[in-house]
Design brief:
11 strands; about 240 residues; five-stranded parallel sheet; alpha/beta
Length: about 240
């Protein structure tokens, strides 16, 4: 069953603009067909289309149930801004892997210092529909490195993909123990050039737990996926 984001009025869900166009013109759906509506809350709304138009579609709510894809942990990805293509891939995969928020920041080797918010919003929308999430994941405005460090104070645990440490320093048993009862988790990943030694030291001093992703140097989008996958498996997110 296809999923679309809309707004609720009483027992009806309204799909507008690009979502209506997708229903009517791309998928060529008709009245009487069933869809799942997401309203940016914790629920899935199972509906039947009662009106289909190019600019507005209306569906009647048949059943409401909690979204099965809701993350169990509140995970924020802090990503040092890479090239545009890498950033867009990271946004897509991060949403699919259950992050609650994406916070880009500037560091010594950052490439981009801006992104097109409208395009990123469409990427998030598409990724949420793909992985059947009912919440749209916010991508925050780019912040400075020192601002990012300050934000880390509000997290229960901070994981840092640190290319400056050796793979043998990883202790997964200890890492698993540290995840117990941790609800709010930050994950920090660098851009193509990684972090300077000074930046890595500052992140560690701020309380981050550094992990190695192996003997090979990974591309930044691969590093983000690998780190988030590890965090998901350990935290059972």
């Amino acid at each position: 069953m296809k999923r679309f984001f809309g707004r609720r009025e009483g027992d009806n869900i309204f799909f507008e603009e690009s979502e209506a166009g997708h229903i009517a013109q791309v998928l060529r759906m008709h009245e009487g067909e069933q869809v799942i509506a997401s309203l940016n809350d914790d629920n899935d709304y199972f509906c039947t289309l009662v009106e289909v138009g190019k600019r507005r579609c209306i569906a009647k709510i048949d059943k409401i149930q909690k979204c099965a894809a809701l993350p169990k942990k509140e995970i924020t990805l802090f990503i040092s801004m890479p090239k545009r293509d890498y950033f867009e891939t990271i946004v897509t995969k991060s949403v699919e892997l259950g992050v609650s928020e994406i916070q880009p920041f500037e560091s010594a080797f950052s490439v981009n210092h801006a992104f097109k918010s409208e395009r990123v919003e469409q990427i998030v929308l598409s990724a949420c529909k793909q992985c059947e999430r009912s919440h749209l994941v916010p991508v925050k405005n780019i912040c400075k490195f020192d601002e990012m460090l300050e934000m880390l104070k509000s997290f229960d645990m901070v994981i840092f993909a640190n290319e400056h440490i050796n793979n043998k320093d990883n202790n997964l048993d200890e890492l698993i123990k540290k995840f117990e009862k941790k609800r709010k988790i930050a994950v920090i990943v660098g851009c193509e050039g990684g972090f300077s030694e000074i930046e890595a030291q500052k992140i560690t001093t701020a309380g981050a737990v550094g992990i190695s992703l192996g003997a090979r140097i990974l591309r930044c989008d691969t590093a983000a996926v690998a780190t988030l996958t590890l965090v998901n498996l350990i935290s059972k997110n």
